[in-house]
Specification:
Helix content: 25-40%
Number of domains: 1
Strand order of the largest sheet: 1-2-3-7-9
Radius of gyration: 23 Å
Distance between the termini: 60 Å
Order of helices and strands: HEEEEEEHEEEH
Strand content: 25-35%
Number of strands: 9
Largest sheet: 5 strands, mixed
CATH class: Alpha Beta
CATH topology: Trna Endonuclease, Chain: A, domain 1
Length: 189
Amino acid sequence: MSALTPAQSLWLFIAVALLTSLLLLFFARKKLGVALKQRQIRRAVKRLGPKVHQGLLVPDGIDGVVAADYVVLTHKGILLITLNWFDGNIFGGKDTDQWTQMLRGSSHRFTNPLHEIHLLCATVKSLVPAIPVSGIVLFAGDCTFPKDKPEGACLLSDLPKQRRKQVVPSSYELTWDLLLTKAKMLSFH
């Protein structure tokens, strides 16, 4: 075997460095995509109301907890948001127990996420009965609802593109603080 010339060594080094960089980028693209999507979600959620809290756990009253990925104070009350990371086509109705994800020719059944958000809303409402509480399930993955999208389910594209001017009643502000105080011991963020 003959030794490489300095120019050949340089080109070999450049080729190996380029190939290594491409491999790292290939394997890191999914993590980068998820990080970018999480950033988009945070920005979109912050446009929903003047106060946002990420990661809230509240006791469910029967030795367990229920979780909200985001809690938003709006002029209409408290909005609870849970995230679902599904890709593909999603089929389900507000009253059905099981929904279906169709992806690459196969199907996967999962529990209706609207049941969980309704339980979460009822639990939070029991902690702060003086304020309206509502909730949505935000489908954050690359998915669509080819048939009707049930009320309470939404995609990132359904959220407003700009922050709306909102006047939040002072009583809502006090209730917001009370909710965060009650849930503080169990908060996961």
